[in-house]
TrEMBL record:
InterPro entries per record: SAM-dependent_MTases_sf, UbiG_MeTrfase
Protein name: Ubiquinone biosynthesis O-methyltransferase
Major enzyme class: transferase
Organism: Beggiatoa leptomitoformis
Function statement: O-methyltransferase that catalyzes the 2 O-methylation steps in the ubiquinone biosynthetic pathway.
Family: Belongs to the methyltransferase superfamily. UbiG/COQ3 family.
Amino acid sequence: MNVDQQELAKFGNLAARWWDANSEFKPLHDINPLRLQYIEEKIGGFAGKQVLDVGCGGGILSESMAKKGAIVTAIDMSEAALSVAKLHLYESQVQVTYRAITAEALAVEQPAQFDVVTCMEMLEHVPAPASIIQACHQLVKPNGYTVFSTINRNPKAYLFAILGAEYLLNLLPKGTHDYAKFIRPAELATWAREADLDIQGFTGMSYNPLTKHYWLNADISVNYLAYAQRPA
């Protein structure tokens, strides 16, 4: 399986705090409105769409898309995170179908079943990100969209995403990211092309530590999002 057991253990140990907006997952809570807006704009709205959230964790994005009217299936290989995600549904009263299955396995089981496939902040945590992108292609319907977010690999990204976020600002637990697993946009574009996905564009996400404000812009040198379409 395309799974890093150390990564699963790392996030599994924090799973109980997934929905605490002031915990280690605060950055995810803070950027979620931006991610949601970006996806909604690119896919033309959520209402009635079959959406798959790959690497859903505790379900922050999954629930947000369901609240917008999407029919959401969300998958992850962390049983601890999925337990928290399922438990939170009792509080939110939102409908999400959570499953412990890899994207590759689900692609064999349910090919071309989803209008939209999202994979956010996950590619940099698996041994073979290209395999995930290939699975996303298999899972999305022809003309459907896939949306990814990850971190660029360059000195600036190391400075901001690791030294800054993990060691200076303490936005994330130390050891959250491995610089060697960061992904350049050109690499993501190559893997998408090899998977027969047409990249439609890249968008950057920036953070101001003084104002504690995130925003989307054209700077893809650190955090970035990309959306692609499966040809008809």
